[in-house]
Amino acid sequence: MKKRKSIPVNPMANQFGSGIAVERLAVKELSTPEKEEAGRPHREDGHSFFLLEKGSVTVEIDFQQYNIRPLQILYIHPNQVHRILSFKNVTVSVWSLNNENLHPEYLQLLEEITPAKPLLLKKETFSLIADAVSLSIRYFERQNDRLYHPLLKDSCNALVALVISEYLAQTQYTQKLTRFETVTKSFKKILERNYTIAKRPADYAQQLNISIPYLNECVKNTTGYSVSNLIQQRVILEAKRLLMHSGKTVKEIATELGYDDYPYFSRLFTKMLRKTPLAFRNKNLD
User: What φ, ψ does residue 118 adopt, rounded to 5°?
Assistant: First the structure.
């Protein structure tokens, strides 16, 4: 199958033009064309949540496979590339919101928990979220209501809040961050927006108005990695996505990621993964 030049984006959140979608799907088996489409690596156009009620799904997200079972919920960030590997007798509730429709505080928290693994819910929590989905679906169908969009937006944000609360509770999240954790959190937020244009620790220290040694101390203490290493890790993750799931050349990928010096990018990739970009692409396509 010939690869598309760019990684496809599934317009789930905007399929109805509102930037919000919510539905419950029951599918025993996918047809051959549906299997092919579901198996194609893609991104979502919004922050997407999948609550598995029945059946089983195996999904690959950024090169990691997850077997999803009932009572589990999966959150996928718009940047993440994923595909369905297997799908059997599934009933799943799905909702998706783009950045504009997400409560700003929820958006910030979602950025902080990305990447997120599938989460197993207690029965009472699962039942609460499933009931909230059913109510949101009813709102979604009332398109003639005068306050249709704000009603739908509020109900879906409530769903997002329930899920975030579970992620924070199960990861022992605390709002009482140390100074090192606060600085690292701010660095990661800036990194996500700037990794293609800012490659030096000095670029981030300047934006945070702190010294380079102090930034390195904070990040190393919190993550175990240096600032330079985390910058490189973020670049290499995107490089891996593009190498595997787009038809762009290595030189085009290097340019997209902010490296005019293509040989330097190739050496960096090889240093990080112990294989060249082309070797990585060819091995994973075999």
Answer: -55, 145
Q: Tell me: cis bond preceding 115? Omega within 30 of 0 counts.
A: yes
**Which residues are within 8 A (CB) of 173 and not within 5 positions of it... i.e. 6 or more apart?**
167
Two structure tokens written together for 105: 């505080």
Per residue in 62-111, pLDDT (tens digit) is: 999 999 999 999 999 999 999 999 888 999 999 999 999 999 999 999 99
**All domains of the chain, ordered by start, with CATH?**
9-170 (2.60.120.280), 179-285 (1.10.10.60)
CA pair distance 58, 115, nearest whole angstrom: 17
CA distances from 139 to 14, 31, 53, 268 (A): 17, 30, 21, 50
Query: If 0-12 CB within 10 Å is exposed, 13-18 middle and 19+ buried, where does residue 197 land?
Result: exposed
CB of 38 closer than 8 Å to CB of 78: no
Tokens of 91: 């009933």
Q: What is the pLDDT of residues 136-185, one digit of tens each?
A: 999 999 888 889 999 999 999 999 999 999 999 887 655 678 899 999 99
The torsion defined by the Cα of 255, 260, 261 and 265, in degrees rounded to 10, comes to: -30
Provide the CB-side half-sphere exposure for 191 (13 A, CA): 26
User: Helix, strand, or coil here: 58?
Assistant: strand
Listing DSSP states for 187-237 in one string gives HHHHHHHHTTT--SHHHHHHHHTS-HHHHHHHHHHHHSS-HHHHHHHHHHH
**What is the value of pTM for the model shown?**
0.87
Residue for token pair 């959150």? 75
Query: Distance between CA 82 and CA 43 in Å, rounded?
Result: 7
Q: Which residues contact 178 (CB under 8 A, 6 or more apart)?
A: none
